[in-house]
Write a structure and sequence with these properties.
Distance between the termini: 28 Å
Number of helices: 6
Strand content: 25-35%
Structural class: alpha/beta
Helix content: 10-25%
Radius of gyration: 17 Å
Order of helices and strands: EEHEHEHEEHEHEEEEHEE
Bound molecules: fe (ii) ion
Length: 263
């Protein structure tokens, strides 16, 4: 099974790049299953039902998210109906929606898990003790054939620790949220593919996808307008993971960067 994981889709530029190019990438890289983090796709703040449906139409199988998932009011109801939209699994008990789901593809069971870190992030359950307990009932080649993990977190050490913590238990663990791709893609010792951050699908001539002038004004502690996404020239950024159908572990991981300003 070949997976494509796409970093956070930021605003219209990111959405348009996906609509225009994803089908071609799926063909070119022989992709079977596409996961994309969509929590910044609605003008940088959350996601709407219409955007979800457009992304599914474009070829995305499952949309993950993070701290911005509730930015659009409609999501509270939509996420209950839409099994292909995930929110972090370690949100407090009773939160609408789900953070883990199993999907059928090519007769195989693909588990997709969305987790959120604790350092510099909104309040949620302590992610390591939480997943230490949950992962006991989510085993490769028992309950699922593959496990894809989006770890939405701010700092690199927490993400690397999670990669090693789930090594041998997940097909791949990839970070999101910083909107900046890292070059540390590799397969860990026990067979889990890993990259600290997938980057974003958005315009990199920006501050993490958002208007540069306003972002600098905020850091200068001066009055600024609300941050809005830059919508000129998006790069699609993510990873391709080739997974072994027999073991559910990774055989290869490669970065994908298409279009826009990134070299
Ligand atoms: Fe985020």
């Amino acid at each position: 099974m070949n997976f494509l994981f796409l970093g956070d889709i930021v605003g219209r530029a990111g959405r348009n790049a996906i609509t225009e190019k994803l089908k071609g990438l799926i063909d070119q890289y022989e992709i079977d299953f596409v996961i994309a983090n969509g929590e910044n796709s609605a003008g940088g703040y959350g996601i709407t039902e219409e955007i979800c449906n457009n992304l599914f139409e474009a070829g995305v199988d499952v949309i993950t998210s993070g701290n911005h998932i509730w930015d659009q009011k409609e999501t509270m109801n939509h996420i209950i109906r839409e099994k292909r939209l995930l929110r972090p699994m370690n949100f407090m008990e009773g939160t609408p929606g789900r953070g883990f789901e199993i999907y059928e593809k090519k007769g195989l069971k693909v588990g997709v898990m969305n987790l959120m870190g604790n350092v510099y992030m909104k309040k949620c359950e302590e992610v390591f003790p939480y997943i230490d307990e949950k992962i006991k009932k989510i085993n490769l080649k028992k309950e699922i054939d593959f496990l894809a993990v989006d770890f939405h977190a701010e700092i690199t050490s927490e993400k690397q620790a999670m990669g090693h913590f789930l090594d041998g238990k997940a097909t791949f663990v990839v970070g999101t949220h910083t909107h900046t791709p890292t070059l540390d893609y590799r397969i860990l010792e026990k067979g889990t593919a890993y990259q600290t951050d997938a980057g974003m699908c958005g315009d990199y001539n920006s501050v993490i996808g958002m208007n540069t002038d306003n972002a600098i004004l905020k850091f200068l502690k001066k009055k600024s307008d609300r941050l809005v996404p830059v919508i000129k020239n998006a790069t699609i950024t993510g990873i391709k993971v080739v997974a072994d159908d027999e073991t559910g572990l990774a055989k290869n991981i490669e970065p994908i960067m298409v279009g826009g300003n990134l070299k």
